[in-house]
Amino acid sequence: MRNSEQSKGAPSQVQSVDRAISVLELLARNGETGITEIAHELGVHKSTASRLVSVLEARGLVEQLGERGKYVIGFGIVRLAGAATGRMDLARLGRQTCQSLAESLGETVNIAVADEGGAINISQARGSAAITTQNWTGQRTPLHATSSGKVLLAYMPDAERRRILRRRLEQFTPRTTTDAAALGAELERVAEDGYAACFEELELGMHAVAVPIHGAHGEVVAAMSASGPSYRLSRQRVRQLVRPMTEAAAELSEQLGYFQH
Predict the structure, then answer these.
(1) Is 234:204 a contact under the CB 8 Å cutoff?
(2) Strand, helix or coil for residue 91
(3) Where does the IclR-ED domain start and stop, copy by copy (predicted)?
């Protein structure tokens, strides 16, 4: 009899777990949310939504903003997330994203992070059309002469960016931007447009485009770039790559805990 009762209750228990997870995802996505909104989103009665939230609140996973206020994600989530933080390795998570994107675009795809005034490539995948076998993984590249570097510069704190722009900007090709004011104006456009491009600025005959990758708190933690020869990766082609690259970067950002509002 007891086993029969347990089997009957199992579907209901699973549904409750699913709904509770949906509540957490809703709060993570929308921020402050009331019981009425939660009930509407889940398609349940307000009393059901209230019971779900009460259980989550008792475990510290959600918190109420004042008496009868709306609810937000609680600090109990931090405790749970702490166990997984060590595994949230950007290079590991980005490897599959790089490979999938490289196969889709046919170009070489890299992920780079800022490191002491430069950019370090931490992951790379080559597409079917890639003509070079050079592996940039682990190599340091200049911020001002690469698409990834420009993304990292555009989104870093103002003081840090100004400190870097006060340095002498090395010229790698005739197309490298070495004027700090001109580069600063370009970085403003990068922040507005959501992507950066380089046309033969580090290496003659090579073009590249990059987009930002966001961390859990919305900060830009890395840049994802696609690069190829100038005869194939034209300026028009670069603009066409922005959308699929932005979508891939958004998926990776979500894996890192970033929920875009």
Answers:
(1) no
(2) helix
(3) 76-258
Residue where a domain stops, chosen among 54, 83, 112:
83
Cα–Cα distance for residue pair 176/111, rounded to 1 Å: 21
Same domain, 155 and 33: no
Contact assessment for residue 187 and residue 162, using Cβ atoms and an 8 Å cutoff: no
The strand ranges marked E within the chain are 62-64, 71-73, 108-115, 118-125, 140-142, 196-199, 206-214, 220-229
Name the residue range of residue 57's domain.
2-83
Clarify whether residues 24 and 48 are in a common domain. Answer: yes
260 part of a folded domain: no
Q: How many domains does the chain have?
A: 2
Tokens 């987009």 belong to: 211
**145: alpha, beta or left? (left if phi > 0; alpha if psi -120 to 50):** alpha
What pLDDT shows up at residue 59?
87
- Please report which confidence band the pLDDT of residue 144 belongs to, taking 50, 70 and 90 as the band edges: very high
Per-residue pLDDT band at 261 (split at 50, 70, 90)? low
Residue 261 lies in a domain: no
Amino acid making up residue 244: P
Q: Do residues 124 and 217 share a domain?
A: yes
